[in-house]
Write a structure and sequence with these properties.
The complex is a heterotrimer. By secondary structure, chain A is of the alpha/beta class. Chain A is built from eleven helices and 19 strands. An eight-stranded mixed beta sheet of chain A has the order 5-6-4-14-15-16-13-17. Chain A folds into two domains: 5-78 and 182-251 and 343-416, 3-Layer(bba) Sandwich (FAD/NAD(P)-binding domain), CATH 3.50.50.60; 112-178 and 253-340, D-Amino Acid Oxidase, Chain A, domain 2 (2-Layer Sandwich). By secondary structure, chain B is of the alpha+beta class. Chain B is 21% helix and 27% strand. Chain B has 22 helices and 48 strands. The N and C termini of chain B lie far apart (96 Å). The mean pLDDT of chain B is 97. The longest helix of chain C is centred in the middle third of the chain and has 8 residues, at 34-41. In chain C, strand 5 (64-70) and strand 6 form a beta hairpin. The chains are: A alpha/beta, B alpha+beta, C alpha+beta. The interface between A and B is large, with 126 and 121 residues. Strand 17 of chain A pairs antiparallel with strand 29 of chain B.
C-alpha cells in the first residue's frame, strides 16, 4: 500500500477500514542468507539497504522485544552532520544525505525537520575549536555558519545573554541540522524492509551464536535455531552480551543517558540548541514538548533509568541558558543504554569470527547515523568490503592507535567521554 | 451550583478571581475547578487534537482536560490543573489552546475532519513536495499543537531545592498513610508524611462515611494534630513525591506559595531530595472512565469526582445528574447526591445482577451509549435490554472501577501485576527496595482495609528498622466489599474517548492493531495514547484492555507501558533551582581580582576562574592596543601577571621522587632540591594529559604546577595512581591552589623589581634560571621560582593567599616605577606564541608527545603512565600532524585559529586537509601575525609554503611553515 | 543513588567521581605485550549484573574505592578501599 494524502482522504471517507499492517509478523524460517540481530534503527535500516541496495531479500531481523524499542525510540531525535575528524566527517555527511531523501525513499513521513542546529561557545578557545569544526564541515561539503553574539541573539533572543555564568560568545550554525520523529524512522525502515521481503521477527531473543571452525553458522533463539552464514550485530547497549556469545570482548562499556520531555507548549523554540558548557541540548517537538538531554549519569548501567544528580544538572543548565523555560514542566524522563567506546566513535567492522559483523559503539550519537549506518553496514555484510564513507570505524584502531577518532579530545580511554 | 450545608470550604471567606477576564467568586478552600463548577461553568478547555470542548474529568492532579494558565506575562504558569490550583483573592486564570475564544475555537474545525486525522495519519502524508515540510506543514502542525505557552522571557519567580533525611517516608496521607504515620510516629521513628493535597485525609475528605464516629475529615484532622505534636514527625502538605530512585532516594515537589498571591517571602515551589531508610506507599487509587460514544463532553466526569465536588467543595456539577458505573462504589455518588437534594435522573449499572436501592430511577444491565450537548452535556442515551432512552442531564458521573496508583513502584523498572478480582494492576512486591505498599494503591479499597494495611505496613517497617511498634486498636470504619465487573468500552459506531487530552479513541487503538502496532508500546507511540500530560493515568488500563481484546490476548499478556518519573509534572525551574544566571557554576576569584577590576581590566572566564583580558590605559580604545603595549612592556621592561589559577599540588614523602617519575614522562628523582623542571604528563592511552613545572623544595618535598584547566583532573589522577596503582609508595599529596597566590614577574627588569621588594637580594648565581627557593618579602615567607612562560628573564613569586592582594599592589607599584605594569591573558598568549610554548589549545587531548616534538621526554629508563601505549604505531610517524609555527607570506597578512591547512595546489576539501591552526596572535615584537598549528609531517616541512583556508571567516592566505619558537630561540634572555 | 565510602559512610552519588571497571587496578608490566595492554585499557567484560568498579570520593576524603554493584538493579553490595585491596594482593 502506498501512503499519500489521497489515500488518507479515501480511507477517511470509507471509515478507515482499508489500512493494512505496516509490516508482517512472520514465523522464522530455518535458514536465511543473512540475519541482522537487533530490530532497532540500525538493524532495520541495515536490513532495508541489504534488500534495496544489494538485492538480498532472504534475510531476517531478530528482535527480542518489539522493534524500535531501544535507543531509536528513546533519544532526543537530533539529526546532524557536524563532526570534524576524518572517519566521522564523511560518514555523517553520507548519513545526512540519506536523511534528506528518506521520506521519498521510504514513503513514510519521518518528519525530518531541517530547522537548524546551533552549537554555542563561551570563550575564545571554544570559538577556535568550533571554527575548526565549521571549516571541517565545509571542507566535507556540508554547511556551517559562524555566528557572533549578535548573530545568536537575532535567532535565539530568549537566551540569557546578560547575566549568565558563561556568556555566549557566539555559535556555529548548521542549517541542515535538525530533528526527526524517532519512532517513525524505525517503523518506516521496517515497512520498507518488509515490503522488500525481509522477515521482521519480534519477540525472538538470540540466546547463542553458533560458530564452527571460526565461522558463524547460525543462532539459537527463544523461537528455535536459525541458520545463516552472515550475521550482523546491531544491538546497541547489549553489544557486550552478544559479543560474549561469540567468545569476544569488546572495547565497550554500557552507560545510561537520560532524556526529558515537557508538557506541550505553543511554539517557542524553533531550532536545535546545543550548550556544550552545560552538557545540554534542546529542541521542541512538533507536538509542543520541549525535548532535552544532558550528559551520561556516569556509571556502568543496564537499567534504562537514571538518577537525580544528572536530572538536576540538566535542568540547571537549562535554567542558566534559557530561564524562560522555567515554567515548563517536565512530563517524563527516561534513560537509554549507551554502548560507550573508548574514543567516543562507533565500530563498523568484521569481527575475528568469519561471517560475524559488528555494528556497535554508537555512544550517545546513534540516532542521526541510522540511515548511514544501515547503508554502510549492509555494504560490508553484502560485499565483505568497507563502504568508502565508513573506512574509519575499525575495531583494531584501539590496539594499534591508528585512526583513533576522539572528537571530544578526552582520550581513548573508558569513561572519559 | 453550590449545595447548602455541604463541603469543607469556608463560606465566611469569599474569594474573587478571574477566568478569561470574567470576575467570579468562590470561597476559601475552593480549587479553580470547584469554583468554576459552582459558577455553573463547565467548559474549561479544549482538547489537543480536535479542539473539542472540555470540562473537568477528575478532581485531582490526574486531570487531563481542565488545564489552565495562571497569572500572566513572564510570571505565567501554563498547563496548571484547574483541579489542583487553589483560588486566592486576585488570582488570574485563563483558558488555553483555544482561539479566538474558548467558546468559539477556530481549530474546532479539526473535529469535523476527524476521519482524516485517524491514528498515525501524519506518517502517511505531508511528504510532497519535500521542502514543504519545514515551510508549510510543520509550522501549521506546531501552531495547532501545544497546550499553554511560555512567554519567552524569564520569570522572576523563585524556586528552591533542599535535602531531607528520615527513617520512614510515608507517601500519601489518606487513611492508610495516616495510620502508618501514626503507628510509626508513636514508635518514635523519624517520619516524613508527604501528600500532594492541601490537607490530609485523601478520599476521606470526599466521602460521607466516617471513621470512629467522626466524619472522615474530622478524623483526619485529629490524626494530623497528633502527628503534628510529635517532634519526630514532619508533615509535608502540597508535596507530591514525584520519583523513586536508587538507595531509597525520592524526589518531591512542594508547592510552597502557589496557593496565595505571589510574595517575596517564599519560593513558588521547592524540589526536595528525600533520603529515607524505608518508605510506605499509600498513594490511593484513581477512578477510570468508561469509553462510550462522545464520552468527553463538559459535564461528564468520574463518579468519585462528582462526590468530591459535592462532599468536599459543596458543589453539584449539574442540577440533575446521571450516574453510570460497573461497580457498587458508583452507587455512593447517587446516594450522596440524593441526600444533598440534587436530582438524580438515573443510576445506570452495567451489571445485570447489580443490587441497587434508591430513590431514583435505576437501570441495571444497561449502559450509557451516547451523549449530546455541544459545549456542555445536555442528555445521555441509555441502552437497556428493551431499547434506548434519552435522558436530559447536565452531568454524568461515570465509573469503570478503580486503578491503584502503582506509578512510583514502576520507577525502578518494576512491572505491576494484574489482579482479576479488581480488574486492575497492583504493585509487585519489592519493586522499590525498602518500600511497602498499603491501602487502595495496593488494591485494598475499603477504609477499614486501608487502615489495616497502613498499620501492617508500619509494623513491617518498624521491624525492618529494628524498632518495636505497639499495635494500636484499629479505628472503626466501613469495610464495604468492592464489587465490580469490567466494562472497558460500550459498543457503538462513534468515537469513544480513551485518552481525553490527546484525543485517542477506541477506533484509533483498533486501527493501530490492524496496522500491526500490536505491542502495547507500539500502540502507545502510534496513537499517542497515554502520552498526554496525565501520562495515561486515566486511560492506560482501558486502552490496553481494548488492545488485548482486539489482538485476542489477555491483559497480563499484553503488558503495560512503563510509568516513569515524574509522577506529576515538575517545573524545570524547580529541579534547576539556583542555577539561573550565575548560579550554574561557582565563581573562583583570585586575590588580585578586586584590584584588577578596579583597573578596568575586562574579566574573562578561565574554567571556573576569572582572569583579566588586558589592562587598558587612557588613550587605548581597542584591546589590541593594550595587548601590544603589554607585550612590548614585558619584552622591554617588566610585567606582572597573576598566575594563581594554575593548579598547585604539594607532593611530600620519602617516595615523592619515585612517584613523580611514574606520573611524569621525564625524570624528577634526578632533580636537585632548589631546582625546577618542566614535566610532561600522559594519560594511560599515551596522549598528552597536561604539562607544567615542578619544583623540588627538598629531598622529600615537591610542588607541582598544572594548567588551570586540568588542575582538578590531575589531582584526581595523582590520587588514582597512588592509591590504585602504587599504594606501596610513601607519598602524600594535596591541592594547594587556593592556599598560595602566585604572580609572574617577567621582563628584563624583573630581578630589579624583585630586589626592590625581597628582604634579601638575589642575583644570577643565587637564583639562576630554573632555580627555586624560599624568600622573604616584607617579612612574609614566600617561594620564588625562576621560570618563564614568556621567553624573558622571569620569576614567579608565591605567598600565602592572604598576602596576595597586597603583594599584587606592591609588585605593580614597583613595576610602574620601572616603566612596567600588569599584563593580562591576551599579552600572555602572544608572549607564549612568540616563544612557541603550548597550552591546551595545542595539547587538546588528541596530541601525543611525538606530535609536539617531545617524544624524547618519555624516558626509556623507567616505566611511566602512558609510556607503553604511547609507543603504539598509530601514535608516532610522519602521517601524524605535528606542531609547527606559521607566518603569513601571502597578500593577506592575517592568520586565524581554527583554519585548516592545505598544499597551495590543492582545493580546500576534507581529503586534502593537512592540518589546522590552533593559536594565533599579532606579534608586536616581530610586526606580524604568528600562528601555531599542526601539520602532517610538519617538522620535515619547515620553510615550505602552505595554504591557510578559513571558510568561516572568509580568509585564505599562504603561510610559511617554521619551528614553533621564534622569539630568542637560543634562550639567552631567559637565562640572562 | 548513594554509595558507601569506607571512610565517610553513606553519601550521595554526586560526591563521587566514576572511573569504570576495577580492572584499572591490574596495570600490566610495561613489556606485557600489545594484547595485554589492549585488554587493560580497552576491552571490557561489561557485565549486565554484578560488577566491580572504581569510584573516588572526590568531594569528600579523596579515597578511591572499589564498589561491588549490580548494573541492572543499581544495588550496591560492597565498598572497599582500593589501597586495602592492593595491600591484600601485594
Amino acid at each position: 500500500m502506498r501512503f499519500s494524502g489521497l489515500r488518507i482522504l479515501k480511507e477517511g471517507l470509507t471509515g478507515n477500514k482499508g489500512w493494512s499492517p505496516h509490516w508482517r509478523d512472520p514465523e522464522p524460517k530455518a535458514e536465511y542468507d543473512a540475519i541482522v540481530i537487533g530490530g532497532g534503527g540500525h538493524g532495520l535500516s541495515t536490513a532495508y539497504y541489504l534488500a534495496k541496495n544489494h538485492g538480498m531479500t532472504n534475510i531476517a531481523v531478530l528482535e527480542k522485544g518489539y522493534i524500535g524499542g531501544g535507543n531509536v525510540g528513546r533519544n532526543t531525535t537530533i539529526v546532524r552532520a557536524n563532526y570534524f575528524l576524518n572517519g566521522n566527517s564523511e560518514f555523517y555527511s553520507h548519513s545526512l544525505k540519506l536523511w534528506e531523501g528518506l521520506e521519498e525513499d521510504l514513503n513514510y513521513n519521518v518528519m525530518h525537520s531541517q530547522r537548524g542546529l546551533i552549537n554555542l561557545f563561551h570563550s575564545d578557545g571554544q570559538r577556535d575549536a568550533f571554527v575548526r569544526r565549521g571549516n571541517a564541515m565545509v571542507n566535507q561539503g556540508d554547511d556551517a555558519v559562524l555566528l557572533d553574539t549578535a548573530g545568536v541573539r537575532k535567532i535565539l533572543p530568549y537566551l540569557d545573554f546578560d547575566n549568565t555564568r558563561f556568556p555566549i560568545y557566539g555559535g556555529l550554525l548548521h542549517p541542515r541540522g535538525g530533528t526527526a520523529r524517532h519512532d517513525a524512522v524505525a517503523w518506516g525502515f521496517a515497512r520498507g524492509a518488509d515490503m522488500r521481503g525481509v522477515d521482521i521477527i519480534q519477540n525472538c531473543e538470540v540466546t547463542g551464536i553458533d560458530i564452527e571452525n571460526g565461522a558463524v553458522t547460525g543462532v539459537q533463539t527463544t523461537r528455535g535455531a536459525i541458520k545463516s552464514k552472515k550475521i550482523g550485530l546491531t544491538v546497541a547497549g547489549r553489544s557486550g552480551q552478544l559479543a560474549a556469545m561469540a567468545g569476544m570482548r569488546l572495547p565497550i562499556e554500557s552507560h545510561v543517558l537520560q532524556a526529558f520531555v515537557t508538557e506541550g507548549l505553543k511554539p517557542v523554540i524553533d531550532h536545535v540548541i546545543s550548550f556544550g558548557m552545560g552538557h545540554f541540548y534542546i529542541s521542541q517537538s512538533d507536538k509542543g514538548g520541549l525535548v532535552f538531554g544532558g550528559d551520561l549519569d556516569f556509571y556502568a548501567s543496564y537499567a534504562s533509568r537514571g538518577n537525580l544528580p544528572m536530572k538536576e544538572h540538566v535542568m540547571e543548565a537549562g535554567m542558566t541558558l534559557m530561564p524562560m523555560i522555567g515554567e515548563a514542566k517536565v512530563l517524563r524522563s527516561w534513560g537509554g543504554i549507551m554502548d560507550m567506546t573508548p574514543d567516543g566513535s562507533p565500530i563498523i567492522d568484521k569481527s575475528p569470527v568469519e561471517g560475524l559483523y559488528l555494528n556497535c559503539g554508537w555512544c550517545y550519537g546513534g540516532f542521526k547515523a541510522v540511515p548511514g549506518s544501515g547503508s554502510v553496514f549492509s555494504h560490508l555484510m553484502a560485499t565483505g568490503r568497507h563502504h568508502s564513507e565508513a573506512t574509519g570505524f575499525r575495531l583494531d584502531r584501539f590496539r594499534t592507535g591508528v585512526g583513533i577518532i576522539d572528537e571530544e579530545g578526552t582520550g581513548s580511554q573508558h569513561n572519559l567521554h | 451550583m453550590r449545595v447548602n450545608g455541604k463541603g469543607l470550604i469556608d463560606r465566611s471567606r469569599p474569594v474573587s478571581f478571574t477566568f478569561d477576564g470574567t470576575r467570579l467568586q468562590g470561597f476559601a478552600g475552593d480549587t479553580v475547578a470547584s469554583a468554576l463548577l459552582a459558577n455553573d461553568i463547565r467548559l474549561m478547555a479544549r482538547s489537543f487534537k480536535y479542539h473539542r470542548p472540555r470540562g473537568v474529568l477528575s478532581a485531582g492532579s490526574e486531570e487531563p482536560n481542565a488545564l489552565i494558565t495562571v497569572k500572566r506575562g513572564s510570571d505565567a504558569e501554563p498547563n496548571v490543573r484547574a483541579t489542583v490550583q487553589e483560588i486566592y483573592e486576585g488570582l488570574e486564570v485563563r483558558s488555553q489552546n483555544a482561539w479566538p475564544s474558548l467558546g468559539f475555537d477556530a481549530l474546532g474545525v479539526n473535529d469535523l475532519a476527524a476521519p482524516f486525522f485517524s491514528a498515525g495519519f501524519y506518517y502517511k502524508t505531508f511528504m510532497w513536495p519535500r521542502a514543504f515540510w519545514e515551510r508549510v506543514y510543520e509550522p501549521l502542525i506546531r501552531r495547532a499543537a501545544g497546550l499553554g505557552g511560555v512567554s519567552g522571557t524569564a520569570s522572576a519567580a523563585e524556586y528552591e531545592k533542599a535535602f531531607a533525611f528520615c527513617d520512614l517516608l510515608v507517601i500519601g496521607a489518606g487513611p492508610a498513610g495516616l495510620m502508618a504515620a501514626l503507628e510509626a510516629g508513636r514508635a518514635g521513628v523519624d517520619v516524613i508524611l508527604a501528600d500532594e493535597d492541601v490537607q490530609a485525609g485523601g478520599r476521606l475528605l470526599s466521602e460521607t462515611h466516617g471513621v470512629e464516629g467522626l466524619s472522615g475529615s474530622d478524623w483526619a484532622a485529629r490524626a494530623i494534630a497528633e502527628l503534628a505534636s510529635m517532634e519526630n514527625v514532619r508533615i509535608m502538605a502540597r508535596t507530591t513525591v514525584t520519583g523513586a530512585y536508587d538507595q531509597s532516594t525520592f524526589g518531591a515537589l512542594e508547592r510552597v506559595s502557589q496557593h496565595h498571591a505571589p510574595s517575596k517571602d517564599a519560593p513558588r515551589a521547592c524540589f526536595w531530595r528525600i533520603v529515607a531508610k524505608r518508605s510506605i506507599l499509600a498513594a490511593g487509587a484513581l477512578e477510570r472512565p468508561v469509553a462510550f460514544q462522545n464520552n468527553d463532553r463538559p459535564g461528564i466526569m468520574t463518579a468519585s469526582a462528582v462526590r468530591s465536588y459535592l462532599n468536599r467543595w459543596g458543589v453539584a456539577p449539574g442540577r440533575n445528574v446521571v450516574v453510570f458505573g460497573n461497580n457498587d462504589d458508583a452507587h455512593r455518588t447517587a446516594h450522596d447526591l440524593r441526600a444533598a437534594g440534587v436530582h438524580v435522573a438515573a443510576l445506570v449499572d452495567s451489571r445485570p445482577d447489580a443490587r441497587v436501592t434508591g430513590d431514583f430511577p435505576v437501570f441495571t444491565g444497561a449502559q450509557v451509549c451516547g451523549s449530546t450537548g455541544r459545549q456542555g452535556l445536555e442528555a445521555v442515551t441509555i441502552r437497556t435490554q428493551s431499547g434506548t432512552e434519552k435522558i436530559a442531564t447536565e452531568c454524568l458521573a461515570m465509573s469503570g472501577g478503580w486503578n491503584p496508583s502503582v506509578h512510583l513502584t514502576c520507577h525502578m523498572n518494576g512491572r505491576p501485576e494484574w489482579r482479576d478480582d479488581i480488574a486492575s494492576f497492583v504493585p509487585k512486591g519489592g519493586a522499590i527496595p525498602g518500600m511497602v505498599t498499603a491501602g487502595a494503591c495496593n488494591g485494598a479499597f475499603s477504609t477499614h482495609g486501608a487502615l489495616a494495611e497502613g498499620q501492617a505496613a508500619a509494623m513491617e517497617t518498624l521491624e525492618a528498622l529494628g524498632k518495636k511498634g505497639a499495635k494500636s486498636d484499629l479505628p472503626d470504619a466501613e469495610d464495604t466489599p468492592y464489587r465490580m465487573s469490567p466494562l472497558w468500552a460500550v459498543g457503538g459506531t462513534g468515537r469513544a474517548w480513551l485518552d481525553f487530552q490527546n484525543d485517542v479513541t477506541v477506533k484509533d487503538v483498533k486501527q493501530a492493531a490492524k496496522e500491526n502496532f500490536r505491542s502495547v508500546e507500539h500502540m502507545k507511540r502510534y496513537t499517542t495514547q497515554g502520552m498526554a500530560t496525565d501520562q495515561g493515568k486515566n486511560s492506560n488500563v482501558n486502552a490496553l484492555a481494548i488492545l488485548a481484546d482486539v489482538t485476542g490476548r489477555g491483559i497480563p499478556e499484553t503488558g503495560t507501558t512503563t510509568f516513569r518519573p515524574p509522577y506529576s509534572p515538575v517545573p524545570i525551574a524547580a529541579m534547576g533551582a539556583g542555577a539561573q544566571g550565575k548560579g550554574f557554576a561557582p565563581e573562583r576569584l583570585t586575590t588580585s581580582h578586586h584590584s584588577t577590576v578596579k583597573r578596568k581590566a575586562p574579566m574573562i572566564e578561565a574554567g571556573m576562574w576569572y582572569r583579566p583580558s588586558y589592562f587598558p590605559v587612557p588613550g587605548e580604545s581597542h584591546w589590541r592596543q593594550s595587548c601590544d603595549r603589554e607585550v612590548n612592556m614585558v619584552r622591554d621592561t617588566v610585567g606582572v601577571c597573576d598566575v594563581s589559577t594554575l593548579g598547585k599540588i604539594d607532593v611530600q614523602g620519602p617516595d615523592a621522587a619515585a612517584f613523580l617519575d611514574f606520573v611524569y614522562t621525564n625524570t624528577f628523582s634526578t632533580l636537585k632540591p632548589g631546582r625546577v623542571r618542566y614535566g610532561l604528563m600522559l594519560r594511560e592511552d599515551g596522549t598528552v594529559m597536561d604539562d607544567g613545572t615542578t619544583a623540588r623544595l627538598s629531598d622529600t618535598h615537591y610542588v607541582m604546577t598544572t594548567t588551570t584547566a586540568a588542575a582538578g583532573a590531575v589531582m584526581r589522577h595523582l590520587e588514582f595512581v597512588h592509591q590504585c596503582l602504587r599504594p606501596e609508595l610513601d607519598v602524600s599529596m594535596i591541592s594547594v591552589t587556593e592556599q598560595w597566590a602566585q604572580f609572574a614577574v617577567a621582563g628584563p627588569k624583573s630581578r630589579e623589581l624583585l630586589n626592590g621588594l625581597l628582604d634579601m637580594l638575589i642575583d644570577n648565581d643565587s637564583f639562576p634560571f630554573m632555580a627555586c627557593g624560599p624568600v622573604s618579602v616584607g617579612g612574609v615567607d614566600a617561594r620564588l621560582f625562576r621560570i618563564s612562560f614568556s621567553g624573558e628573564h622571569a620569576y614567579e613569586i608565591a605567598v600565602p593567599a592572604r598576602y596576595g592582594a597586597s603583594l599584587f599592589e606592591a609588585l605593580n607599584e614597583k613595576a610602574a616605577a620601572l616603566g612596567g605594569g600588569p599584563y593580562g591573558m591576551e599579552a600572555l598568549n602572544v608572549l607564549r606564541i612568540e616563544k612557541g610554548f603550548i597550552t591546551h589549545a595545542e595539547i587538546h587531548g588528541r596530541v601525543t608527545a611525538f606530535d609536539i616534538g617531545m617524544e624524547r621526554m618519555i624516558s626509556a629508563k623507567k616505566d611511566c603512565i602512558g609510556q607503553t601505549m604511547a609507543a603504539r604505531p598509530g601514535l608516532l610517524g610522519a602521517e601524524r600532524e605535528q606542531l609547527v609555527g606559521l607566518k603569513p607570506i601571502g597578500a593577506v597578512k592575517q592568520l586565524t585559529a581554527g583554519a585548516h591547512l592545505f598544499d597551495p595546489e590543492n582545493p580546500a576539501t576534507r581529503e586534502h586537509s593537512e592540518g589546522y591552526v590552533t593559536s594565533v596572535g599579532f606579534s608586536p615584537t616581530m610586526g606580524v601575525f604568528l600562528g601555531m598549528g599542526f601539520l602532517k609531517n610538519g617538522r620535515a616541512r619547515h620553510g615550505q609554503t602552505v595554504k591557510l583556508v578559513d571558510h568561516m571567516r572568509g580568509i585564505e592566505t599562504l603561510c610559511e611553515v617554521h619551528g614553533p619558537v621564534l622569539h630568542d630561540p637560543e634562550g639567552g634572555k631567559t637565562r640572562g | 543513588m548513594r554509595l558507601i565510602c569506607p571512610v565517610c559512610g553513606e553519601r550521595d552519588r554526586r560526591e563521587f567521581y566514576y572511573m569504570g571497571d576495577a580492572v584499572a587496578l591490574q596495570r600490566p608490566e610495561p613489556d606485557a605485550g600489545a594484547a595485554e595492554w589492549d585488554d587493560y585499557v580497552h576491552l571490557r567484560e561489561n557485565p549486565a549484573g554484578v560488577t566491580r568498579d572504581l569510584w573516588q570520593h572526590e568531594a569528600g576524603c579523596a579515597a578511591w574505592i572499589v564498589v561491588r554493584r549490580n548494573t541492572v538493579t543499581h544495588e550496591v553490595l560492597e565498598s572497599v578501599l582500593a589501597t586495602d585491596l592492593k595491600g591484600a594482593s601485594a
